From TrEMBL:
UniProt-recorded name of the protein: Putative G-protein coupled receptor 158
GO cellular component, one term: plasma membrane
Chief location: membrane
Organism: Habropoda laboriosa
Residue segments, region Disordered: 238-257
InterPro entries recorded: GPR158/179, GPR158_179_extracellular
Amino acid sequence: MMIHEIHRSYSRLGFHTYTLNETTHTEREEDEILTVRYEDGRWSKPYYDCGGGNIWMLTYTVPFFGYVNDTYFFKGTSGIDIDLRRLDIDQCPLPPGSTQLNIFAASDKCKKRTTECIAIPGLGFRRGSYRCVCKRGFYYPDTKSTSRYYNGTVIEEEYEKLMMGDESQYDVEGVFECLPCAEGCESCEDDSPCVVSLNWLMRTAILILECCVIACLPAVALFTWKYGNVKNDQRTNDPCGQPVERPGQLNSGLNGRATPKLTLLVDDQSGNETTYATCPWPISVTSRHSCDGYYPGNYYTTVESRRE
């Protein structure tokens, strides 16, 4: 009796008829059926209805039962078909911290290193409803294009070819990817520099000239040392305006000119904190000692020459 009462609480009084053809039906008969809840039904996976409507569909199916002689028995199923053509698919990753349920999330085929996915609403139930746009710090290779993004539909087609073993552009390096911005740019539209670029042609020419001058200095120093004791009756001035009576006095001046030129060899490369802090010191020291007449090792020679 207890079981019968429980069944009664979940049952409802209904009616059913049998259809013989489009116009002939049997009389409506009273029947007692079980109440079906949402949890009793089942959702199908998305499928393509070939021949029926040639559309993507979902079907929700629930069973229904009859009741005879205090016993319920299975009579059949009833289903609801849902057209998916107007249902958008969002294949892009969910935002951080999102609790949204999306079984298609993060299924896009964008090249994650340089591009990111942006969903396109209103395209219906089909894959590729997104764009692959360049990440911050990268730019679209075709700078003259008005649509600076990669079409998700095209990318999905190329990815499918790759999975099928056919010739595909998806795995080709550089395809469907963006290019990095120039050094110092946080964002850009092309490869234009954001900081001053070096003229390497001019710098190389100056460097070669400096190397030639530095290479000649040892020969000049040897010449002045060899003929340092030769008496020079004609008084001349060095580049700093100091009187020079003997060629040997030029050695210190040559050293003072060579040191700043050597710093150019270091400064010609891409600078860093060490080179920037070091390069001014040789120039400052040599310029002070060379143009004030305090050449190391030759101060007394200059004084004695003036006394004579």
